[in-house]
Specification:
By secondary structure, the protein is α/β, with parallel strands linked by helices. The protein has 2 domains: 83 residues, no CATH class; 146 residues, Trna Endonuclease, Chain: A, domain 1. The protein contains 9 helices and 10 strands. The strands form 3 sheets. A 5-stranded mixed β-sheet has the order 1-2-3-5-7, sandwiched between helices. A 3-stranded antiparallel β-sheet has the order 8-9-10. Helix 3 packs across helix 5. The longest helix is centred in the N-terminal third of the chain and has 35 residues. 32% of the residues are buried.
């Protein structure tokens, strides 16, 4: 999987992007205090045993202030990026609106959706074609790989799903997600269900956006792994809608109790964890 060659600056930037808002000023203050007071004190205590040049102390102090200032600058940049991601996300709540995003904006849009679900999101910056990974999600010690296919009115077949399975196995990830602004073929849906790959099409992405809301408060995150399909659901996979609550694919069910007993309806495949329904 192609990734950025992260140095110290990139690592600090990633931490500031996924960390709490107060992290930047606190980290900068800690660096400044350590460089101005702690390290010079350590040098003084060692000067009797180890010959150390006295000119190193002002260099350390000045260097710590420069590093602290750099951290504050990166923190401000991360705030701007966060604000831009939120504005893009909140202003593109419909499927048609998402279709107008560039491929880079689409990756950021999908990343913001998962970030609001409680994941730590790393945007890899990989412009590669099929087989490339666009996002890496981390939550509860598990890694989920995400590939984005920004196609407005194009159906995604089984080939990209197979390729994603190979990348998932090669990276040792626990799950994988393939996202498109278009639709998936029935063959792609069936293969994904059998191989622990979650598919999110344009309708499911719109439902996910609605579930996390414009206030940034996440609904309970959907599992990245699709539940096994029932025979009825397999037959209707190509036309199955998305759950209005969690965005997962829905399956046809038959009511067994109440006044509607015997009638058909769409139920969330994540039942009983999610009880979203739609009329058939």
């Amino acid at each position: 999987m192609a990734r950025r060659n992260n140095g110290l600056i990139d690592a600090i930037g990633d931490v500031l992007m996924i960390g709490p808002i107060w992290l930047g000023p606190v980290l900068a203050a800690a660096v400044a205090v350590a460089g101005w007071f702690v390290l010079p004190g350590v040098f003084s205590s060692l000067s009797d045993r180890i010959p150390l040049h006295v000119s190193l102390v002002p260099l350390i102090r000045n260097g710590s202030l420069i590093l602290a200032g750099g951290i504050l600058v990166m923190w401000l940049v991360s705030l701007v990026k966060r604000s831009a991601a939120r504005r893009t996300f909140d202003s593109h709540a419909s499927r048609d609106s998402v279709g107008n995003l560039s491929w880079r904006q689409f990756e950021g849009y999908v990343g913001e959706a998962f970030r609001r679900e409680g994941y730590h999101v790393e945007q890899t910056g990989d412009p590669a074609g099929d087989g490339g990974i666009d996002l890496v999600l981390r939550k509860d010690g598990e890694v989920t790989l995400v590939q984005c296919k920004h196609w407005k009115a194009r159906s995604v077949g089984v080939k990209p799903v197979r390729e994603l399975l190979g990348v998932m196995a090669g990276e040792g990830a626990q799950a994988a997600v393939l996202v498109t602004s278009g639709v998936f073929t029935a063959e792609a849906i069936g293969f994904a269900r059998a191989n622990r790959i979650r598919l999110i099409d344009g309708d499911a992405l719109a439902a996910l956006v609605q579930s996390v809301g414009s206030n940034g408060q996440a609904a309970p995150p959907a599992s990245p792994v699709a539940a096994p399909a029932t025979p009825v659901a397999a037959e209707a996979a190509s036309s199955a809608p998305s759950c209005p609550k969690c965005g997962a694919r829905m399956v046809l069910r038959t009511a067994r109790k109440g006044a509607a007993a015997g009638s058909r309806f769409w139920g969330c495949q994540a039942y009983p964890r999610c009880r979203g329904t739609r009329p058939a």
